[in-house]
Specification:
This protein is α+β, with helices and mostly antiparallel strands and 156 residues long. Helices cover 35% and strands 21% of the residues. Strands 1-2-5-4-3 form a five-stranded antiparallel β-sheet. A hairpin with a 7-residue loop joins strand 3 and strand 4. The two termini are 25 Å apart. The relative contact order is 0.20. The N terminus is likely disordered.
Amino acid sequence: MALSSDTCFKCNSNNTKQYADVFDADYEKIFSEVIERHHVDINQYRQKIITTQNDETNDIPFQKIYREFQQIVSHRSFISVILHLDGIRLGKSNKLVLWLLSCTIVELPPHLRNKRENMIPLSAWIAPREPIIHSWLNECIQRLKYLKLSGMYIKK
Protein backbone atom coordinates (compact mmCIF):
# COMPACT_ATOMS: atom_id res chain seq x y z
CA MET A 1 0.00 0.00 0.00
CA ALA A 2 1.20 3.48 -0.78
CA LEU A 3 0.52 6.62 1.21
CA SER A 4 -2.01 8.79 -0.64
CA SER A 5 -1.09 12.08 1.00
CA ASP A 6 0.36 13.31 4.25
CA THR A 7 -1.72 16.50 4.26
CA CYS A 8 -5.35 17.18 3.51
CA PHE A 9 -5.31 20.18 1.20
CA LYS A 10 -9.07 20.62 1.60
CA CYS A 11 -8.90 21.03 5.41
CA ASN A 12 -8.29 24.29 7.22
CA SER A 13 -7.29 22.68 10.51
CA ASN A 14 -3.86 21.51 11.66
CA ASN A 15 -5.43 19.89 14.73
CA THR A 16 -3.83 16.45 15.17
CA LYS A 17 -7.16 15.06 16.42
CA GLN A 18 -8.55 15.76 12.95
CA TYR A 19 -5.60 14.17 11.14
CA ALA A 20 -5.75 10.73 9.52
CA ASP A 21 -3.27 8.57 7.63
CA VAL A 22 -4.83 6.89 4.62
CA PHE A 23 -3.11 4.10 2.74
CA ASP A 24 -4.49 2.90 -0.61
CA ALA A 25 -3.47 -0.18 -2.57
CA ASP A 26 -2.64 -0.36 -6.26
CA TYR A 27 -5.98 -1.96 -7.16
CA GLU A 28 -5.13 -3.17 -10.65
CA LYS A 29 -1.92 -4.82 -9.48
CA ILE A 30 -3.40 -6.53 -6.44
CA PHE A 31 -6.51 -7.77 -8.31
CA SER A 32 -4.30 -9.04 -11.14
CA GLU A 33 -2.10 -10.98 -8.73
CA VAL A 34 -5.02 -12.75 -7.04
CA ILE A 35 -6.83 -13.47 -10.32
CA GLU A 36 -3.68 -14.71 -12.10
CA ARG A 37 -2.85 -16.96 -9.15
CA HIS A 38 -6.35 -18.49 -9.20
CA HIS A 39 -7.54 -18.22 -12.80
CA VAL A 40 -7.91 -22.01 -13.09
CA ASP A 41 -9.98 -22.17 -9.87
CA ILE A 42 -12.11 -19.19 -10.97
CA ASN A 43 -12.81 -20.77 -14.38
CA GLN A 44 -13.70 -24.14 -12.81
CA TYR A 45 -16.02 -22.46 -10.29
CA ARG A 46 -17.64 -20.43 -13.09
CA GLN A 47 -18.38 -23.69 -14.92
CA LYS A 48 -19.94 -25.11 -11.77
CA ILE A 49 -22.02 -21.94 -11.37
CA ILE A 50 -23.26 -22.15 -14.96
CA THR A 51 -24.03 -25.87 -14.96
CA THR A 52 -25.44 -26.32 -11.45
CA GLN A 53 -29.14 -25.59 -11.03
CA ASN A 54 -29.48 -25.98 -7.29
CA ASP A 55 -26.41 -25.84 -5.05
CA GLU A 56 -26.63 -26.90 -1.42
CA THR A 57 -23.87 -24.53 -0.27
CA ASN A 58 -26.18 -21.50 -0.57
CA ASP A 59 -23.22 -19.53 -1.94
CA ILE A 60 -23.76 -16.10 -3.57
CA PRO A 61 -23.23 -17.19 -7.22
CA PHE A 62 -26.09 -19.67 -6.93
CA GLN A 63 -28.61 -17.05 -5.84
CA LYS A 64 -31.27 -15.36 -8.01
CA ILE A 65 -29.77 -11.86 -8.34
CA TYR A 66 -26.31 -13.13 -9.27
CA ARG A 67 -27.79 -15.55 -11.84
CA GLU A 68 -29.88 -12.79 -13.42
CA PHE A 69 -26.82 -10.56 -13.71
CA GLN A 70 -24.82 -13.45 -15.16
CA GLN A 71 -27.42 -13.94 -17.90
CA ILE A 72 -27.35 -10.23 -18.79
CA VAL A 73 -23.55 -10.16 -19.22
CA SER A 74 -23.08 -13.76 -20.34
CA HIS A 75 -21.05 -12.62 -23.34
CA ARG A 76 -18.26 -11.24 -21.10
CA SER A 77 -16.08 -12.52 -18.28
CA PHE A 78 -16.47 -10.52 -15.12
CA ILE A 79 -15.29 -10.51 -11.56
CA SER A 80 -17.54 -9.40 -8.72
CA VAL A 81 -16.44 -8.54 -5.21
CA ILE A 82 -17.84 -8.34 -1.71
CA LEU A 83 -16.63 -5.24 0.13
CA HIS A 84 -15.76 -5.49 3.83
CA LEU A 85 -15.39 -2.50 6.15
CA ASP A 86 -14.28 -2.92 9.74
CA GLY A 87 -12.47 -0.99 12.43
CA ILE A 88 -10.54 -1.70 15.60
CA ARG A 89 -8.94 0.38 18.35
CA LEU A 90 -5.15 0.06 18.20
CA GLY A 91 -4.57 0.16 21.94
CA LYS A 92 -5.71 1.39 25.33
CA SER A 93 -2.85 3.86 25.83
CA ASN A 94 -3.48 5.75 22.58
CA LYS A 95 -6.72 6.60 20.91
CA LEU A 96 -5.81 5.50 17.39
CA VAL A 97 -8.28 3.45 15.41
CA LEU A 98 -7.58 1.40 12.29
CA TRP A 99 -10.32 0.99 9.73
CA LEU A 100 -9.79 -1.33 6.78
CA LEU A 101 -11.69 -1.58 3.51
CA SER A 102 -11.05 -4.94 1.90
CA CYS A 103 -12.80 -7.24 -0.55
CA THR A 104 -13.07 -10.82 -1.66
CA ILE A 105 -13.75 -12.18 -5.13
CA VAL A 106 -17.13 -13.90 -5.40
CA GLU A 107 -16.02 -16.14 -8.29
CA LEU A 108 -13.43 -17.84 -6.09
CA PRO A 109 -14.73 -21.04 -4.48
CA PRO A 110 -15.60 -20.40 -0.79
CA HIS A 111 -12.67 -22.45 0.54
CA LEU A 112 -10.27 -20.13 -1.36
CA ARG A 113 -12.30 -16.92 -1.03
CA ASN A 114 -12.07 -17.02 2.76
CA LYS A 115 -8.30 -17.52 2.93
CA ARG A 116 -6.37 -14.52 4.24
CA GLU A 117 -4.09 -14.32 1.18
CA ASN A 118 -7.14 -13.90 -1.08
CA MET A 119 -8.72 -11.10 0.93
CA ILE A 120 -7.72 -7.95 -0.92
CA PRO A 121 -6.86 -4.88 1.19
CA LEU A 122 -8.02 -1.76 -0.64
CA SER A 123 -7.60 1.09 1.82
CA ALA A 124 -6.75 1.75 5.46
CA TRP A 125 -7.64 4.72 7.71
CA ILE A 126 -5.55 5.32 10.84
CA ALA A 127 -6.56 8.22 13.07
CA PRO A 128 -7.55 9.16 16.61
CA ARG A 129 -11.20 9.15 15.48
CA GLU A 130 -13.59 7.07 13.44
CA PRO A 131 -13.38 7.71 9.69
CA ILE A 132 -15.24 10.39 7.85
CA ILE A 133 -16.55 7.85 5.37
CA HIS A 134 -17.18 10.18 2.43
CA SER A 135 -13.77 11.84 2.76
CA TRP A 136 -11.99 8.54 3.12
CA LEU A 137 -13.75 6.31 0.61
CA ASN A 138 -14.80 8.73 -2.13
CA GLU A 139 -11.51 8.39 -4.03
CA CYS A 140 -11.41 4.68 -3.35
CA ILE A 141 -14.87 4.11 -4.85
CA GLN A 142 -14.00 6.33 -7.84
CA ARG A 143 -10.88 4.22 -8.49
CA LEU A 144 -12.92 1.00 -8.29
CA LYS A 145 -15.48 2.44 -10.73
CA TYR A 146 -12.68 3.41 -13.12
CA LEU A 147 -11.22 -0.09 -12.93
CA LYS A 148 -14.68 -1.54 -13.59
CA LEU A 149 -15.24 0.68 -16.63
CA SER A 150 -11.75 0.35 -18.11
CA GLY A 151 -11.37 -3.37 -17.41
CA MET A 152 -8.18 -5.31 -16.83
CA TYR A 153 -5.96 -7.56 -18.86
CA ILE A 154 -5.01 -10.74 -17.01
CA LYS A 155 -2.07 -12.87 -18.13
CA LYS A 156 -2.96 -16.56 -18.08
